[in-house]
Recover the amino acids of this structure.
């Protein structure tokens, strides 16, 4: 038990899934993902525009 020196190679025969397969066979709706992406982009751009605006001179 103390001298367990198994040096045989373990071959991984599981199928490797590509990102394209994951998107095609998942239950995600691409249209809803695009709506969420546009909303997040709009929020990000509005925050950037407020931060980048010049402060009024007092």
């Amino acid at each position: 038990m103390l001298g367990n020196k198994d040096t045989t190679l373990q071959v991984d025969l599981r199928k490797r899934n590509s990102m394209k397969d994951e998107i095609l066979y998942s239950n995600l709706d691409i249209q809803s993902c695009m709506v969420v992406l546009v909303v997040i982009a709009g929020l990000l751009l509005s925050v950037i525009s407020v931060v980048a605006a010049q402060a009024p001179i007092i």
About this structure: The two ends are 79 Å apart (CA to CA). Residues 30-52 form the longest helix (23 residues). The chain has a mean pLDDT of 81.
